[in-house]
């Protein structure tokens, strides 16, 4: 995978958000689009330089929007697809999976995501960033968010991708950052 692929993925997410904004509420294709930026939170030899812009699109096929109870929210995850791109030639990745969103108050919520990712990271070269071991990884995310309005939200995020020791090396990729989301 190369930088052009990941740049194309970000472009597709942004284009899709524009297409979705023209759809009526009843014909909503996307539930939310998020744009963010993060930095590596790895230590010393596994630290990745640069910023990591990201874009994620959320779909709501299980109608989480109308969930009432906490259990109802847990039984209705949203589907997400996104990308994280390195600005310094480090590992970039595309990912997809499920996100469970639980409201804490009317304004504050928690997101928990799980799925898979493909990356272009270092598989086994010494002194060249984290050794991820394989290109297919598990991807987990956690976000603490605040609803500014019914449509706009801001989140503090933490994301991690690793192979769960299924490959020879497993340094993983870990980031913390901020994101702005728009719910349709």
Layout of SSEs?
Layout: H1 3-21, E1 32-40, E2 51-59, H2 70-74, E3 78-84, E4 93-103, E5 108-119, E6 136-147, E7 152-162, E8 173-183
Antiparallel strand pairs: 1-2, 1-8, 2-3, 3-4, 4-5, 5-6, 6-7, 7-8
CATH class: Mainly Beta
Question: What is the CATH architecture annotation?
Answer: Beta Barrel
Q: Helical content, roughly?
A: 10-25%
- The count of strands amounts to 8
Low-pLDDT residue spans: 16-25
From the alpha carbons, calculate the radius of gyration and give it in angstroms: 17 Å
Summarize it.
13% of the residues lie in helices and 45% in strands. The protein is mainly beta and 184 residues long. Residues 16-25 have low confidence and may be disordered.
Architecture overview:
- The chain is mostly beta strands.
- The protein has one domain (3-183): Porin (Beta Barrel), CATH 2.40.160.20.
- It has 2 helices and 8 strands, in the order αββαββββββ.
- Strands 1-2-3-4-5-6-7-8 form an 8-stranded antiparallel barrel.
- It is elongated and about 50 Å long.
Record keyword descriptors for this entry.
mainly beta; 8 strands; 45% strand; 8-stranded antiparallel β-barrel; 184 residues; Porin
